[in-house]
Design a protein that fits this description.
This protein has one domain: 2-Layer Sandwich (Histidine-containing Protein, Chain: A). A hairpin with a 2-residue loop joins strand 2 and strand 3. The chain contains 3 helices and 4 strands. It is globular and about 35 Å long. It starts with a strand and ends in a 5-residue tail after the last helix. By secondary structure, it is α+β, with helices and mostly antiparallel strands. It has a 4-stranded antiparallel sheet with strand order 1-4-2-3.
Length: about 90
Amino acid sequence: MYSQVVTLQNATGLHARPATQFVNLATTFQSQISISVADKDGDAKSILKVLSLGIAQGTQVKIAAEGHDEKTAVESLVMLIESGFDK
C-alpha cells in the first residue's frame, strides 16, 4: 500500500466538477484507491462516495492505493489536487 496526504487548495473543494475530474483519473488505474478525511473514507472511484465526504478548501486528505500501479495512482491524484484542478 502507498499513500500520501495533501491539502485541498481550490476554492470549491472537492465538489461537482473537481470531484468528477478526480474520479475520472482514479478510474484509469487498476489499483484499489481510497480517499480519507478525518474519520471518514470512501472509494476514490465512486463519485457518490467522494461527494459524500464533503471535502472543503483547506482540508487535508489522505489518498491511499493498493495494487501494481499504486504509487503512480497516488502521485497522479496528488498532482491533480495540487494543481487546483487547473483552476
